[in-house]
Design a protein that fits this description.
- The complex is a heterodimer.
- Chain A is an alpha+beta fold.
- Chain A has 3 domains: 109 residues, Butyryl-Coa Dehydrogenase, subunit A, domain 1 (Orthogonal Bundle); 110 residues, no CATH class; 141 residues, Butyryl-CoA Dehydrogenase, subunit A, domain 3 (Up-down Bundle), CATH 1.20.140.
- Chain A contains 12 helices and 10 strands.
- Chain A has a 4-stranded mixed sheet. In chain A, strands 2-3-7-6 form a 4-stranded antiparallel sheet, with no helix packed on it.
- Chain B is an alpha+beta fold.
- Helices cover 50% and strands 13% of the residues of chain B.
- In chain B, helix 6 runs antiparallel to helix 7, helix 10 runs parallel beside helix 12 and helix 12 packs across helix 14.
- The relative contact order of chain B is 0.11.
- The chains are: A alpha+beta, B alpha+beta.
């Protein structure tokens, strides 16, 4: 299903209104995380607006049709708009929307709220997953099997980023030479919540040890479900694009604040904006934002074969955005380092996004895997 | 830990350890056959007095600071701070800018520059915890104007009692107060200062001065027994800046608030208020109108240890990442067995070694130039943030978890790009110092 430009405009207008009227009042102090109760209410509001809905029949849902360029771009624009107000909220919606979408694709009618959380996957199997997605029908390279088995729920110790108050996690798992999908909850998995995460303070960071039940609630795909490769490709690629869009939105807010400050604050008798020492920081940030914007607002479908491009984009843009957030903080000098200014929270949030969705180590290995550097004789699909 | 099976064993004839043995005896002095850890190797390269000091500092950091790191980070005013300060005082770390018998530094160590000693100290302390390291180190910053005043009567009267108390295990801290609400960079850069209207002003009264104004972001200001505070003389500009020593119990002196910082949280950044605070003539530090010179001279010394703070944080992040990749595995192999992981570790090690090389080179001087001090500060702080970011990246989700320790390192490192003059101001300090030379070469 595709959406026309009018529908897209209507969706983004609605998201902007929500961000301004509903979300905005709770983040007037940008340094303060939204309280858990309020956060849950806001997410429930988003659900009632149809932003989280499995199946492609609802164009207003985030990740309604990842294989459609217009739909994907609309989702990314919406996440960007929400992240300008609060990155954690945008991230929570994207995880739940994606989990709900994938569950619907598997043909399961969700009885509980579901999300696709982000696991610390230690290099996404050193590119094994990218190799498997490039050539799912071919025999695996030595070592890839074991590496795939250690991903997601297969990892012994991992850290999981999840939205709070969402009842179940949908998690892929490579087991017995095949991909399966499991439904789990942090409590059943014996996870322990990290009380002091680096960023995205509104979300939950779970420490997953070796205890807990990891073998239950396997989802049996309904007949006619997309292939494992299609679903897995979406599960890997969508968070990467979402990460860029959410970081972009968060840093747009930081940039606006830094620019405003530079127009007011004086040093040496001049506004600091007039000093190249400061204006160059702002210029670098702006360049990173404009470049990332070109990605987020360009039609891009999560179709087969798009993973290489998406990984490359994330590899290029996320570190640049991370630096842009830092440059905005630096404009504030000592004030930027203090909680009151709100900039330090944005820097932490963007760092957390980079850790959770796209460590450059993972991305480099995945990209290398797609063009055969690390794949022996195999070449990428045409 | 088992070695990666695909790498050449040290016992293999092609491994350098074995290959070098086949060199002629005359060539042996030019090659090293050991493969000590960098810390050990660097320590052995130091003069004995400094090497021994570095080992003492590491022991202190691991025994006193490391176990209290998490508590210090989460509670700015808990018992941790007083425990650490008492231990630091007993260990002589709060009275070490002067030799015995006034201070606690052994005479044989005083053959080496104070900057080198302080740099070694800050790296070791901050490798364990930069917040607690700053808690101890900021006291040295507050002390520097007194020492640079070289006013023996002032030192005997004001500093000696504080040092005696410190050496006896009763911490008496000094804080350094320059930053004002209207001027952060303006009070660290001549170009800005020229046009800056001072916010902290001293009015002449019989027997001394009345000080009025605010100072912000003062490290250790919450616990300071006294503050070396800089103010302009009434009716004059920054050229009249003068340093005053103000005790915590002086009427009119108050601590307004402590900031909530991104990192280095164990040490508070405090806003100080001076309302008609009387400072007797005897507590004017250095000559009148010498404050700007004292400030710039202090920064030229202190920016080098700030580089050491950054280095220590980066080393701490590297060591945490090293622990992580040794403990965690993928597909049955420890992460450290994978080449891409080894390469990241190697780069972190290279970066920290480059920082230390520059730092130690500059630290050998008793009087680093403005260019040297700013160079160390900028290079080390920027590189440290890069190392911490690389460590977080290597650890992925674990990198963003508090338990992984490197997220704290990142938060801590970020401040080193800001305090003691932002890195932008430090680059301008290089320009200020070098411009004549550059023009002459043009």
């Amino acid at each position: 299903m595709t959406i026309d430009i009018e529908t897209r405009r209507e969706i983004i207008f609605g998201v902007e209104r929500f961000a301004r009227d509903r979300l905005g009042p709770h983040v007037e102090r940008p340094e303060t995380a939204i309280g858990r109760g309020r956060f849950a209410t806001l997410v429930a509001d988003a659900r009632s607006l149809g932003w989280i809905a499995g199946g492609a029949e609802n164009p207003y849902a985030l990740w309604a049709s990842p294989d459609d360029a217009a739909s994907t771009t609309t989702t990314l624009s919406a996440l960007r708009v929400l992240a300008r107000t609060n990155a954690g909220f945008a991230f929570a919606l994207q995880m739940e929307a994606l989990g709900t979408h994938l569950l619907a694709q598997l043909g399961v009618e969700p009885e509980r709220t579901t999300q696709l959380p982000l696991f610390g996957v230690q290099g996404l199997g050193r590119g094994a997953i990218a190799r498997w997605l490039a050539t799912p029908q071919e025999p695996m390279r030595d070592g890839d099997h074991d590496e795939l088995c250690d991903l997601w729920l297969g990892a012994e110790h991992t850290v999981v980023l999840a939205a709070p108050e969402v009842e179940q996690w949908l998690v892929p798992r490579f087991f017995g030479g095949e991909w399966t999908w499991q439904l789990a909850s942090p409590l059943a998995l014996g996870a322990i919540r990290d009380q002091r995460p680096h960023g995205l303070d509104e979300l939950d960071w779970w420490q997953l040890g070796t205890h807990g039940d990891r073998g239950s609630c396997i989802v049996v795909p309904a007949e006619g479900s997309p292939t494992a490769a299609t679903l897995l490709s979406t599960a890997v690629a969508a968070p990467l694009l979402a990460g860029v869009a959410i970081a972009l939105g968060a840093i747009e807010r930081a940039f606006e604040a830094a620019l405003r400050y530079s127009e007011i604050r004086r040093q040496g008798g001049r506004r600091i904006l007039e000093h190249p020492a400061v204006s160059s920081l702002l210029a670098r940030s702006r360049a990173a934002l404009i470049n990332a914007e070109a990605i987020v607002e360009s039609p891009l479908a999560l179709e087969a074969g798009a993973l290489e491009r998406i990984v490359a984009l994330a590899l290029l843009h996320l570190p640049a955005l991370q630096q842009a957030a830092n440059d905005c903080l630096q404009v504030f000098g000592g004030l930027g380092y203090m909680q009151d200014a709100g900039l330090e929270k944005i820097v932490r949030d963007v760092n957390a996004i980079c850790c959770a969705v796209a460590p450059t180590l993972s991305l480099e290995l995945m990209l290398a895997a797609t063009f055969g550097v690390d794949t022996g004789e195999r070449r990428p699909k045409e | 830990m088992k070695r990666p099976p695909d790498l050449v064993e040290p016992s293999h004839p092609l491994h350098p350890t074995q290959a070098f043995r086949r060199l002629p005896l005359a060539a042996r002095p030019f090659v090293r056959l050991d493969s000590l850890a960098v810390w050990e190797s660097d320590t052995r390269s130091l003069p004995p007095a400094l090497g021994e000091y570095r080992r003492q500092l590491r022991r202190f950091a691991e025994e006193v600071l490391l176990p209290r790191r998490d508590d210090g980070d989460s509670n700015q005013h808990g018992s941790v701070q007083s425990e650490v300060l008492e231990a630091a005082a007993r260990a002589g770390l709060l009275s070490d800018l002067l030799p015995r018998p006034i201070g606690t530094t052994p005479l044989r160590r005083m053959r080496h520059s104070l900057v080198f000693q302080q740099s070694l100290k800050m790296e070791e302390l901050c490798a364990a915890c930069a917040g607690l390291g700053l808690l101890i180190g900021a006291h040295g910053l507050g002390t520097m104007p007194l020492i640079l005043s070289t006013d023996l009567a002032l030192l005997r009267r004001e500093l000696w009692p504080l040092y005696r108390a410190n050496a006896g295990g009763r911490p008496r801290l000094l804080a350094y107060a320059i930053t004002e609400p209207g001027g952060g960079s303006d009070v660290e850069d001549a170009d800005g200062a020229r046009r800056y209207k001072p916010g902290c002003v001293a009015r002449r009264v019989p027997g001394g001065y009345r000080l009025n104004g605010r100072k912000i972001f003062i490290s250790g200001g919450d616990l300071a027994h006294a503050v070396t505070v800089f103010g302009a003389l009434e009716g004059e500009g920054m050229e009249s800046w003068t340093c005053f020593l103000v005790y915590h119990d002086a009427p009119g002196f108050s601590r307004v608030r402590n900031e909530i910082k991104m990192g280095q949280r164990a040490s508070a950044a405090t806003e100080l208020l001076f309302e008609e605070v009387f400072v007797p003539d005897a507590r004017v530090v250095g000559p009148l109108r010498a404050g700007w010179a004292l400030n710039r001279a202090t920064l030229n010394i202190s920016r080098v240890p700030v580089g050491a703070i950054a280095l220590g944080i980066a080393r701490g992040a590297f060591e945490a990442a090293l622990g992580f990749v040794n403990r965690h595995s993928l597909a049955g192999r420890p992460l450290i067995h994978y080449q891409e992981v080894q390469l990241r570790l190697a780069q972190m090690q290279i970066d920290t070694s480059a920082m230390r090389g520059l730092l130690w080179q500059v630290s050998r001087s008793w009087a680093p130039t403005q260019t040297q001090a700013a160079t160390v500060k900028v290079f080390c702080s920027d590189t440290a943030v890069g190392v911490c970011r690389a460590a977080m990246d290597l650890m992925a989700n674990h990198g963003a978890s508090y338990a992984g320790a490197v997220e704290k390192s990142y938060r801590d490192a970020r401040l080193t790009q800001i305090y003691e003059g932002t890195n932008q101001i430090n680059r301008l300090a290089v320009v200020e110092d070098q411009l004549e030379a550059w023009l002459a070469l043009g």
